[in-house]
Amino acid sequence: MKIHEVTEEQLSELRAKHGERRVIKLSTTTPDGAIEIAVLKPSRKEYERFRKQLGDDNKRDGALENMLRAHVLSPERAKFDELLDEFPALPEEFGKPLLAAIGLSGSAEVGKS
Length: 113
Fold this sequence. Notes:
The chain is of the alpha+beta class. It is built from 5 helices and 4 strands.
């Protein structure tokens, strides 16, 4: 069962509107079913705002959720908020692949040459 689906047609429309490389589809599976979302990759400035929130003790806990909510294209924000009410760990689940998509994959190594 799919709780929320992003079709290839929706994804194509979003990429045509926002840019082919800026829109990504993220998916996860819960015991209740699959959830797919389409997000806009954060810009450099938006990522800097996220990092500042991480450094603020009062904002750290919500930093990932704030970044994700600001960049969700599908579902619409009200529906995404309903998903967050039902599945409050979604920011952590989707946050890691979103951060990997903008370069924070954790796979960087020191080269010896």
